Amino acid sequence: MSGKAMLNHAAEVVADRSAAYGAPSKAMELLAKRWSITLGHPVTPAQAVLCLIDLKLTRLAHDPRHQDSILDIAGYAAVLHEVTR
Known about the structure:
single chain; mainly alpha
């Protein structure tokens, strides 16, 4: 799959998740609120997205060819763009 095709697929996945779970910015806001309670200090939606990207990077360190993790990072990058606008 070309890089462009992968980015198009990531956009489709983000759209599918948005249809299933609501706007990504709202989902990250809710996740940040939950993690704030769990961690005992404020977490921003952007920080929540960055942590999810870190999770995928950790998995890629184990297997840099894992296409799902690469795809997820592209999708999370788009979500990060949305929550920081």
